[in-house]
Amino acid sequence: MLTCFEKNKRFIPFIWVCLLVIWGGFLYSTSLPDLWTQWQTQEYGHGLLLPFISAVWAIYLLQKTPIISKPSYLGIVFISGALILNSIGMVISNHWISHISMIIFLTGILMAFLGVPAVKRIYPAILLLFFTIPLPVTILPALTADLQLLSSTLGVEMLHMMGISAYQEGNIIDLGDHKLDVAIACSGLQYLFPLLSLSYLIAFFSFEIWWKRLFLFLSAIPITLGMNASRIAFSGILYDLYGSGAIEGFLHSIEGYMVFALCLVMLLIVRIALNCLPPFNVNKEESLTSFSWNKLMSNQFQRPRIMLMVMIIAVLSVFTALSVFIANRHDAHIELTRKQFYDFPLNIGHWTGTRSSLTATELRTLNLTDYFVGNYTYEGKSFSPINLYIAYYDKQTQENSIHSPQICLPGSGWTILSHDIYNVGAINVNMEVMQKGTQKLLVYYWFREAGYDAATNFEIKKLLLINSFRNGRTDGSLIRLTTPLEEGDQLRDVQDQMDDFLKNTLPYLPEYIPPPL
User: Residues near 331 by Cβ (< 8 Å), separated by ≥ 6?
Assistant: First the structure.
């Protein structure tokens, strides 16, 4: 019995790693379903494969040459830091923070039981896991809009180079008799993220020189943008010649696969070109065919110390209890007394309003609890009309939270010309001047988190974190004022009109947005 144990004791660190990863699955149970959902999308479908590739790659790297390693207490620091981040992500309902902390947690587990030298050996495989993490919801819409607009611009330039007359207005390409609407799906993100993952793998398996690896990896970005713009230009030609039927349905889907295949071909061409440049690789290119299980088992991994195991179990136990507490706080129902927005006043000071509404699509996207949209004009004076929009959420989650105008308006084609934090009475608001074609808007907006005013994203998250821990409140609202800037208008005069309307509106808000407890 003892002989069998001594013979197989080298497996003990790996058994501990597997057990603690399973425990970690419980700690991250609130964010893992979101990650799985994101992996079902076109942009992140490759995320299903990358963890398996990363695991095989890590095993391969460990067996290349023998390594002497020992458990490290530094792993506890990584584990604790990761679980602190996860707790913050749970409190503010930010899955991206939790997803990033999962990789740090795994790194800490490996460091604690396999040692620092082993982690240094397999760091490329660990970094690959970051390509499985979807971008934050605060970044993705803006990035999609920017890439969509850039692809449209490059596509129009290509059409001009081919002698085809085309006029661009945002993401609408006017071809004279026809207008081509460049959809969000044509932003190129569905190619960019998988191609970046592939370029990372190819770079590490092809080169030893760091700048060649970096160049090949970054080349995926211009390749994707260029090929996507070419797709838009090709669609414009077909649309101009044969109408919308030529670029819809099956042909449109085939175009997508063809573009990705061509991107991969271009990436391999860049690899071949880099391989012809000095300095040349000293070692042969990496190959998984040299894998040997016996080589892997020749590594001298020491058994973890009892004290180390006790400390890790204690840390995980504390954060397990904290996770349960946070989950219970989120599930708790808090009664907040407030009026519904259907009777929000339409007469505010000298301003008279008419009620408006959101579309069914907008309501499905925003998924808010209650809202108000009204258009107000000043009695007796020819002031520009002011649009008032208030969105209220009684409980914010990752899927159900405030959408900032900095994301929504640029996503619909508006460009931010200026942005300032501006004081109106007792509150600070974001003041932005936006433009779309020849139209200009002056926009004021700020947020109320559990009754407290905030202007910046940092303030929002801080208030959400504090109030969620203090009393379980995660309710929040967005208040936005918008007015057109006509040619000849003085910005200061329009600001004075907005200031007057805002100051008259503030006293009504506590009845509809619950104040602090």
Answer: none
